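Sample intake sheet
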Amino acid sequence: MPGKDARYKEYKGKFAREVLRRLSAAGIYLEGDIVRHFPSTDVRAAKGVTKRQRRLDRSQPGEIPHVDLGRLRRSIGNEVIKRKFVTRVGASTAKAGEAIDYSIFLELGTRRMAARPYLRPALDRSRRAIAQIFGKPMHIV
């Protein structure tokens, strides 16, 4: 029969794996919510769209950014950082294959441009679902 230390390590490992699994599930849910709420039309991809029509289709302050080339929408991803028990969700340069350096400016705004948040509203919409993911009892014994 294993000793107390061995059982403690076993339960600690099971607990850590379950927390990481739930963090991953929460990240996947939040990533999906962000991508789903981007406008579905790609303005530049539509044939016959004039410059004036593109200018009129810009997102307004406070709105989710409109899709122009789709780089930001394609770059949305999540990763679980195991050592810190953290899930990061947002624009990822690794997923898009190019630097998406403007995502922070869209989310928070600048002194010349009002914010067009897409991460914070998604987190607000997803709070209840994420709470349910973590609120379920853990069966690790």
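Comment: Residues 4-36 form the longest helix (33 residues). The chain has a mean pLDDT of 81.
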